[in-house]
Amino acid sequence: MRLNDCHNVSDFRRLAQGRLPGPVFHYIDGAADDEVTKARNTAAYESCDLVPNVLAGVQDIDMHTTVMGREIAMPLFLSPTALQRLFHWQGERGVARAAEKFGTWFGISSLATVSIEEIGAAISSPKMFQLYVHKDKSLNRSMIERCKAAKFDAIALTVDTIVGGNRERCLRTGFTSPPRLTPSSALSFAAHPRWTLNYLCREKFSLPNLDTHVAEGSNVAVSVADYFNTMLDQSMDWKMAEAIRDDWGGEFCLKGIMSVEDARRAADIGATAIMVSNHGGRQLDGGRAPFDQLAEIVDAVGDRLDVICDGGIQRGSHVLKALSVGAKACSGGRLYLYALAAGGQAGVERSLSNFEAEIVRDMKLMGASHVGKLTRENLRYR
Predict the structure, then answer these.
(1) N or C: which end of the chain has fewer CB within 10 A?
(2) Which residue of the set 88, 134, 279, 318 is catalytic?
C-alpha cells in the first residue's frame, strides 16, 4: 500500500500499522480500558443524519472561519499531540508545515519532540501550545514565558489528564518515552528497519520543552501513564486555571471540557475557547462522545466563547454535522497522526487534502456555500 492509495483515515491507519513498531503504533491507536469511548467518539456521528437543500447556487464554497481570534481557511485543525518524532522523524516540523500550507491551526504539546522556539519561528499560521500543569511550578512558568517569547497565538490548558488513563495496550507492549528495548520490542523494532534506523541515526530523541527541568521522558524511560501520575499536579483547580489565564494574557482554551457546568465556569474565568473532548477516549472510558455532548454545551456558552468539537472525526461529513450543531471548528489527533506515521509531512498534507475535498464536496451537496449557513435545520437524529 502506498500513500497515494490512502483516501481516508482508515487507509492511513493501515499504512501506519505496517510502518511502525508495534508499541509505537498501539500508543497512537489505543485508548483506555475497553476502548468503548474511543469507538463511541466516531459512532456518535452516525446517529445523526444530514438533510440537504438543493438548487442553492453553490459553485463557490467558503470554508473560512475565525477561531480564537485567527481566521483559518478550513473549519478543521490539528490537535496538539505528544511524542511526534516517534511516529515519523519529521515529527512536529512536518505537521506544522502541513498545517501552514492549509491555513489552519496547529498545536504542540508540552511533551512535544520539537521546541516551542523552533515551531514559533518555523510557521506564521495560527499555533497553540498544550499546557500540562506540572508539580514543578517553575517549569509551568518557563513554558508560558517561552510561548510568549515565541509569539504563540493561544494556550490550551489540558484539564482531563491529571492522572494517566488505563491504556492497556501500552501496558501489554511496554511502551515508554523514550522507547525501552525489551525482548518483545526488539523484535518489533528489527522488523521495521526504516523506522529503527531513523530513530537511531537522526537527532537524539528528547522532549525539549521539559528537559530543562525533568529528565523523565527524555533521558529516563518512563511510561506515559507513570509520567502523568508522578509529574502532573493533581491539585489543579479552577483557581489555578484562572491564574494561568491571567499569566498568559492571550487567547486561552480549556481542552477536555465535557459538562455544561464546566463550560459555564470556563466562560466565567475568561476562557476564549473550549475543546469539547475526552482525550480521544484515552482517559475515562465510558465517557460520553464529544459530538453527543456538543448541542447542550453550545446552547449554554456558544455566545460567550468558541466551542470546538474534538475527537472521533474521520470524514468531512462529521465536520459538517458538528458545525451544524454550532461548533466553530473541529479538531483531532489520530486523523493526522496515522498520516504522519504513513508518510511524514506528505502524509499529513494528503490527509488534510482529503478532508478539504470532502468538506467542499459535502457542502455543495448540502446546498451551503459558507460554513455559517450550516444549522440544526440540516440535521435529524435517529
Answers:
(1) C
(2) 279
